[in-house]
Specification:
The complex is a heterodimer of chains A (206) and B (322). In chain A, the strands form two sheets. Chain A has a six-stranded mixed β-sheet, with helices on both faces. In chain A, strands 4-5 form a two-stranded parallel sheet. Chain A contains nine helices and eight strands. Chain A has a single domain, classed as Glycerol-3-phosphate (1)-acyltransferase. With 322 residues, chain B is mostly helical. Chain B has eleven helices and no strands. The interface between A and B is medium-sized, with 17 and 20 residues.
Chain lengths: 206, 322
């Protein structure tokens, strides 16, 4: 076992010890199909939680998205994101000649699954903010990929904004049924429907 | 009985486990045979419940055995982990706010390990007062420093209560294993075994009695099956069992009766209190996965023990001056 794999197992173990990281597969089975999991974003811990809730064989080709400037700024951060999580790097500063979604599209054409947080930023208001349009463009470019709405519950209590050490509180990750495609739907309609699908996975309502 | 008493300590304890696991295997085989029959819907629910209870007993017995074979350090560690998981479940169901973050960190990562270290090291004087005196004063201080006056008392009460049940209560289980009596070396397992058996017997006795008596429940909104008379019958049933088992303890029969009555009564009252907490949190039983989170129902199992163990432990310590 390589060091990166060991680190991955350790992180998954810690996440499970602290949060339980229970995956509830309500709308789809945990199968190794190409998927985009899109979830509400409340804390830095979100990605690790989704990742730990996935069965081990799915973790291998499910990749997060990381901001290049921050996650390559130290050797350890770079190692963690590149070797352990196999993150897809994106540039936060928009340049005119490059589409920011390009690395994501490339990962999708390699057959990898992605986890994205379409709100773009962490929110702690309970309900997710309006979704950014990235999800729409990805879905347009790769219509064969399943879009799985995902709700992460309780994680804002584990690590509120500004705190460093997590408190052990049970969290669940609920995976819903793949978002269906509606012909001729515009961008705003699609994003609103996607957001509603994530909200519908809130525990006790699904 | 006298033949048993002449066995070496190790042999006695081994016999205890052989009997315990023997009974469990028989119960499981019985359940399996019974489960092959076709059953009605009503029986199905009871069937599921029995299956859940049986599994919990298996887990408990295995835990008990592991605690015994792994000695002082292992037992403390094992119960420490159980306590951690129970507290995690408890805090999940209580709604805490941002300002509680530091207090919770203190509870999980400082108080819990320290309390179990004190138990494992047999520093029973400090072990007894550490949480009720020092921690219960420290938690509100940390909370106050978080600068959030909203529902201050309520939030602190929740955390303190969680620590009381999940940490303080459960830490008395390894403490019982490690309690040293004169002429009773290495037999702490029997005390813990007695406690668990008595608590279970009292619980079963109380439930059977309430079904049979059909009296008005004392606290109808919390538990429809609890009544004072059923409680008394349950505690007495536990006491009778304790008296019958006196020969595995350092007590005489009347002493075993009295101590078992106290432990059994405390255990069933603990069950009642936990039921009230569950009603408050809005879950039918802690393990209800669809409710909030993936809680596994550990609290349901440990609640009677968490109430019975400290009362039993301190009664024994006070009465026998150990």
């Amino acid at each position: 076992m390589s060091r990166a794999e060991a680190m991955g197992l350790l992180l998954a173990f810690v996440a499970r010890l602290i949060t339980g990281a229970q995956g509830h597969w309500k709308g789809c089975p945990p199968k190794a199909e190409q998927r985009i999991y899109f979830a509400n974003h409340q804390s830095h811990f979100d990605w690790v939680l989704i990742w730990a809730a996935l069965p081990q064989e799915l973790r291998v080709n499910t990749r997060p998205i990381a901001a290049r400037d921050y996650w390559t700024s130290s050797p350890f951060k770079a190692w963690l994101t590149r070797e352990v999580f196999r993150a897809v790097y994106v540039n936060r500063q928009r340049t005119d000649d490059q589409d920011p979604l390009e690395p994501l599209l490339e990962a999708l054409s390699h057959g990898d699954s992605l986890v994205i947080f379409p709100e773009g930023t962490r929110s702690n208001k309970g309900e997710p903010q309006a979704f950014k349009s990235g999800l729409y463009h990805l879905a347009q470019a790769h219509p064969q990929v399943q879009l799985i709405p995902t709700w992460i519950d309780n994680v804002q209590r584990v690590m509120p904004k500004g705190e460093v050490v997590p408190v052990p509180i049970l969290c669940t990750v609920t995976f819903g049924a793949p978002l269906t495609r509606v012909d001729g739907e515009d961008k705003a309609g699609f994003l609103e429907r996607a957001r509603a699908a994530v909200l519908a996975m809130r525990s006790g309502r699904a | 009985m006298s033949a048993l008493r002449t066995l070496p300590v190790g042999g006695q304890v081994a016999l205890l486990f052989v009997i315990l696991f023997g009974v469990l295997v028989l119960a499981s085989i019985g359940w399996f045979v019974w489960s092959l029959r076709e059953i009605s819907d009503g029986a199905q629910a009871r069937h599921e419940r029995f299956k859940r209870d049986l599994r919990a007993v298996w887990v408990g017995a295995t835990l008990f055995w592991l605690a015994w074979v792994s000695g002082a350090v292992g037992a403390t560690l094992l119960f420490g982990i159980v306590s951690f998981l129970a507290l995690r479940e408890f805090i999940t169901l209580m709604h805490t706010s941002r300002g509680d973050h530091r207090s919770l960190l203190l509870a999980f990562f400082v108080v819990l390990p320290l309390q179990f270290t004190l138990a494992g090291g047999r520093w029973f004087d400090l072990f007894t007062v550490f949480i009720p005196v020092y921690v219960f004063l420290a938690i509100p201080v940390v909370s106050a420093l978080a600068d959030d006056p909203q529902r201050f008392l309520e939030r602190n009460a929740k955390i303190q209560w969680g620590i009381m049940v999940c940490v303080y209560g459960l830490s008395h289980a390894p403490a019982l294993l490690l309690l040293e009596f004169r002429d009773y070396d290495g037999r702490g397992a029997f005390l813990l075994f007695l406690l668990v058996m008595v608590a279970a017997c009292a619980q079963i006795g109380q439930e059977a009695a309430s079904r049979w008596l059909r009296t008005r429940p004392t606290a109808r909104h919390i538990d429809r099956s609890f009544s004072a008379r059923a409680w008394l019958i349950g505690a007495t049933a536990g006491a009778v069992l304790g008296a019958a088992l006196y020969w595995i303890t350092p007590f005489k029969a009347p002493q075993a009766f009295a101590l078992s009555f106290i432990a059994g009564g405390a255990g069933t009252l603990g069950g009642l209190v936990m039921r009230a907490l569950k009603k408050d949190a809005g879950v039918a039983w802690w393990g209800n996965a669809s409710a909030v989170t993936g809680a596994v129902g550990l609290l349901d199992r440990v609640a009677p023990l968490a109430f019975a163990a400290p009362v039993f432990f301190h009664s024994v310590r006070w009465y026998f001056k150990v």
